[in-house]
Write a structure and sequence with these properties.
The protein is α/β, with parallel strands linked by helices. It is built from 17 helices and 15 strands. The strands form 4 sheets. It has a 6-stranded mixed beta sheet with strand order 7-8-10-11-13-12, covered by helices on one side. Strands 3-2-1-14-15 form a 5-stranded mixed beta sheet, with no helix packed on it. Strands 4-6 form a two-stranded parallel sheet.
């Protein structure tokens, strides 16, 4: 956290005078500020999962941020927007392609500068998918002609920004693609930019921070570095790293947390790369410093009670404690607005639901859902394959209830849970035919003798039970937790249900951090157990919140802090 107190400076050529630097008494400050939004690795994500307490991301919200000040805002994307680095089945490729093309086109409409990473080439058509794009990359060869450019110059409020793309040679690149040495390629581009009147250079990389940092030390003239490929920090790094006279930032993945950089020119209109912490960053740093003071005080108190403690070590700890207290004092007295001529703020910005959505992009997203649904159905020609003879098959809640009257109480309890409405929640938002959602909102999805989009859609459209598509598997039914029930239904007194007592591991397939961030086994079990369905187990759980209550509390807290 100590980097907040440092500054990174670097003035460039003067221009015509710009409006005076804003102060606390100048509410129209933003009119002279250049705004940069920096993303990386959207990974085929157009919108967030709506099941979490704090859904983050949404290309429509990012678009709204940019359109709020179009003449002075720029979206920079370090690449990896088309696909997530995982293997997709053939049936899921049409949806992924439609989403990838949608993001690509939206970014083009927003005049974004987009780098390329290896994930962008994972589509069914490989390199050919980029024929309608214009990607930024200086050290990559082998992509279709006209689809790449090594550098771009963008002018905002009269300021020329040079942007270079550098990708990682060690990435999983397909055959036919050659990646050259980053240092050599960047040196060539910087030499070219010097003759184009550029005031500041930004480098988008498809590399992790460690590699980006090493490259940055060799090119001190670059003022902003973007580390676009950090597998260990998917949420991004909250503070910029200061490298001499430059900043290094790490955005989050999937459009959830973008880096928002505000460039405040000097009174003469020049850019000054002097980093200044925002009030929020200052408060977070104060909190960390106070925690360190508390720990240091406890350490000193213990040392002073030990007769064998080294006096020199105690003196060193006292000096460290005093230094921490002085840092707190300085930060506490810092003005809310910097009293400097030209500066930069840089902070990780969560794309939350409190931000507005661009109505035009939102309308296009709704149309995309319909297009995806039709494409997904077109890729299927029937139900999933059957099981082997003698193996249990899925029968659906109705058949479970019809076979065993003693399950009626359990069924009534199930009808009060979110599980019983799982598929309906997708229908309400137009996601019932999306592979991103339906697997965890239905029973036995994409399993033998289970369900798929074909069977689920047949049931959704039918007014009477459809023929030849198996039982109704909409919603999260009994067999999600207890396994396929055909053999048990046929002989309930002789054959037990496959999983009699599901445990926490049964839930973790869907209740992941990404899709169910408030999941806690006991709380969620309290909401699905009771009279007729694990009443004895419910008693052992004792009193406490249910899963629904945890979700509601988390959403309320998130709303209060947005």
């Amino acid at each position: 956290m100590g980097t907040i107190g440092l500054v990174a400076t670097g003035c460039f050529s003067s221009r015509a005078p710009a409006p005076a630097l804003p102060t606390a008494n100048s509410p129209k400050a933003d009119s002279s500020t250049i705004e940069l939004l920096i993303a990386t690795r959207l990974w085929n994500t157009t919108e967030p999962c709506g099941c979490t307490s704090t859904p983050l991301g949404d290309v429509a919200r990012i678009a709204a941020l940019l359109k709020s000040s179009p003449d002075r805002s720029l979206l920079l994307d370090a690449g990896g927007l088309r696909y997530e680095p995982k293997v997709l089945s053939a049936s899921k490729l049409p949806q992924a392609r439609l989403k990838a093309d949608f993001i690509e086109k939206t970014w083009q409409e927003l005049s974004a500068v987009v780098m390329v990473q290896s994930e962008d080439l994972r589509g069914e058509q490989g390199l050919a998918e980029l024929t309608a794009t214009k990607r930024l990359v200086a050290n990559l060869r082998g992509l279709p002609e006209g689809t790449t450019t090594p550098r771009e110059v963008r002018t905002l409020l009269g300021v020329k920004l040079g942007i270079v793309g550098i990708t990682d040679p060690s990435g999983p690149w397909p055959a036919g693609v050659q990646v050259s040495d980053p240092e050599t390629a960047l040196g060539e581009q910087l030499a070219a930019l010097r003759g184009e009147g550029v005031e500041s250079v930004i480098v988008l990389t498809g590399m992790p921070r460690e590699k980006t940092r090493r490259l940055a030390r060799k090119f001190p003239d670059v003022k902003l570095w973007v580390a676009g490929a950090n597998d260990k920090v998917e949420e991004g790094v909250e503070l910029p790293e200061i490298l001499g006279g430059a900043l290094l930032v790490t955005p989050g993945h999937k459009g959830e947390r973008l880096f928002h950089i505000s460039l405040h020119p000097s009174a003469t209109g020049s850019l000054v790369w002097r980093f200044v912490a925002t009030p929020q960053q200052r408060q977070r740093q104060l909190s960390v410093l106070r925690e360190r003071v508390s720990a240091a005080e406890k350490l000193l108190a213990g040392l002073q009670q030990e007769t064998a403690a080294d006096p020199a070590f105690i003196k060193t700890q006292q000096a460290e404690l005093q230094n921490l207290r002085e840092q707190i004092s300085q930060l506490s007295q810092a003005p809310s607005h910097p009293e400097v001529d030209g500066y930069v703020t840089a902070e990780l910005q969560a794309i939350t639901r409190s931000l507005p959505r661009d109505p035009a992009i939102r309308k296009k997203l709704d149309a995309l859902d319909q297009q995806i649904g039709q494409a997904n159905l077109k890729a299927l020609d029937g139900p999933p394959p059957d099981t082997l003879p003698g193996s249990p098959r899925y029968v659906g809640n109705t058949n479970c209830l019809g076979a065993c009257h003693f399950h009626e109480a359990a069924h009534k309890l199930w009808q009060t849970t979110q599980h019983s409405r799982a598929h309906r929640t997708l229908v309400e938002v137009g996601k019932e035919l999306s592979y991103d959602c339906v697997g965890c909102h239905s029973t036995a999805f994409d399993t033998p003798a289970g369900s798929n989009l074909y069977t689920i859609n047949k049931w959704q459209q039918a007014t009477t039970p459809p023929v030849g598509v198996g039982p109704d598997m909409r919603h999260v039914g009994c067999e999600v937790c207890h396994g396929p029930g055909s053999l048990h239904v046929a002989a309930p007194g002789k054959v037990k249900i496959p999983t009699q007592r599901p445990d926490e591991n049964t839930c973790l397939g869907c209740h992941t951090k990404e899709h169910s961030d408030t999941f806690e086994w006991k709380a969620y079990a309290r909401g699905i157990l009771g009279e007729g369905h694990g009443a004895a187990t419910r008693q052992t759980l004792g009193e406490g919140p249910t899963g629904r209550e945890l979700r509601q509390a988390a959403r309320k807290q998130a709303a209060e802090h947005q």
